[in-house]
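Deliverable D2.4 — example input (structure tokens):
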């Protein structure tokens, strides 16, 4: 398959599973927009510093366990997820952070490189409304060294996410 906007070298910036998944989703141009950095962009702060954007323009992909079932929450990089709001949104008895092995098993990616879509398994996805405050957000492309830009509404749609308000209140 020929991609538009990306060479083989550029495509290699994304995790191979992610590059394949987005092509299958009809996003063949996306791997060519992935940026790879020499230093890790594992945290939102590292990613924002490397890109030169606001911390809130980073889209964090966080896996939680709601009554033991993995759920993905997409959150802006400047905010924290309020587990009680997630619990209420899902009607769950208990919501906790997923263990690293559960994250890898569910998504196919390690913590720090989890993209918002292109996962190994289908997972329920919640996207915090705060992501809509920007024209473009940056998300992981399957590795702790790679990110891609996308318009938030498009990212949320491709993730199959439900738009919610689940961030902790600002102090």
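Example output (designed residues):
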């Amino acid at each position: 398959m020929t991609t538009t906007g990306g060479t083989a070298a550029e495509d290699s910036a994304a995790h191979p599973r992610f590059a394949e998944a987005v092509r299958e989703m009809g996003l063949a141009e996306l791997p060519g927009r992935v940026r790879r950095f020499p230093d890790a962009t594992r945290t939102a702060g590292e990613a924002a510093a490397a890109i030169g954007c606001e911390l809130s323009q980073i889209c964090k992909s966080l896996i939680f366990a709601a009554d033991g079932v993995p759920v993905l929450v997409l959150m802006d990089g400047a905010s924290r997820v309020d587990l009680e709001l997630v619990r209420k949104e899902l009607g769950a008895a208990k919501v906790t952070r997923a263990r690293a092995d559960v994250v890898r098993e569910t998504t196919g990616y390690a913590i720090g490189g989890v993209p918002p879509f292109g996962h190994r398994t289908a997972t329920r996805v919640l996207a915090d409304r705060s992501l809509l405050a920007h024209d473009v957000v940056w998300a992981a492309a399957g590795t702790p060294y790679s990110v891609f830009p996308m318009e938030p509404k498009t990212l949320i749609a491709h993730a199959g996410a439900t738009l919610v308000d689940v961030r902790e209140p600002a102090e």
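The first strand starts at residue 35 and ends at 36.
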